[in-house]
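Moderator note: this is an archived Q&A kept for reference. The question asked for a predicted structure of one protein chain; the sequence and the answer are reproduced below.
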Amino acid sequence: MINKPLVLTYFYLLIYVLLSSGVILYNKWVLSPKYFNFPLPITLTMIHMAFSGLVAFLLIRVFKVVAPVKMTFEIYATCVIPISAFFASSLWFGNTAYLHISVAFIQMLKALMPVATFSMGVMCGTDKPRCDVFLNMVLVSVGVVISSYGEIHFNIVGTVYQVTGIFAEALRLVLTQVLLQKKGLTLNPITSLYYIAPCSFVFLFVPWCLLEKPGMAVSQIQFNFWIFFSNALCALALNLSTFLVIGRTGAVTIRVAGVLKDWILIALSTVIFPESTITGLNIIGYAIALCGVVMYNYIKVKDGRALQLPSDSIPERITKDWKFEKKSSDIFTPHSSSNSNGGNLDVSELNDEEAPLLSSRLSHIGRSQLSNQTIRHE
């Protein structure tokens, strides 16, 4: 007999992998001077933000599919605005990197995301320094350095843009945890777009006026409505599909899917963009970095399982897992979640800066619930 929920879960995973890979390759094709030739990453990102904000506005205010949250001016000024600023920065720098380096090399550099997130978390006090995690971060960093050394078309400007975008995204994720969760604010994907996308658009407008608007006035830039509409639609669909995947799968499954997606994307990019040449040193370096990421994932999953109370009976634990998974489908605040697989979903997972708010995560409410239960038992 066919297990329909399991089939549906793997269908969502397949959609996520296809959309995530497709959006990245699509953005590269649009921005690259060798193909569609629209070398304006800020403009493309602003189109994403405007489209996502408009769709969210229609769903909330016109069709009333989702109810808006209670947003005070204080929360908006102290939380939404700084988070949107770093979100806009991460999208800007990440998309600009496509003009200078290959998709394959960008994916290899993205292995640094756990390093950036852990570093920002320690600096902001949301993570504690740990020797085992630190050694994994060193392994990841060494692997990325080796991979960079083996890059034939290494470009320092593109590398700096990508690494800066990674750290900007990591800081945004940590700030989201520190600021929004302290206020007790929970956002689903639509309300996240509704509040953050317009603010990010405003932040992008300033560098657009200074860097890209003057060039657009004198250059022959082609604009195809259907190209940009489909591109923004894919980015929006990717954001929503990620939420569905997080709501239906566990941390282990998501991590495996993320690693599989990276390998598929690297392979596809070399086929679609022949100029993307991968060397043996690239592969060795990325493999080393991937070992560090896998070990880091194992530590996080192990820590998540340790939060499960040993005193709970199996039926009680299943009931708690089911209740949390059901509740998680209605909650969408960034950072991490403890889910039914007992793994702690880190903010660096499922991270693609190309899609609006894709890297937002389920909140750590699940972890908080388990922590509260532990406190009551002490």
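Archived answer notes: Residues 51 and 159 are 29 Å apart (CA to CA).
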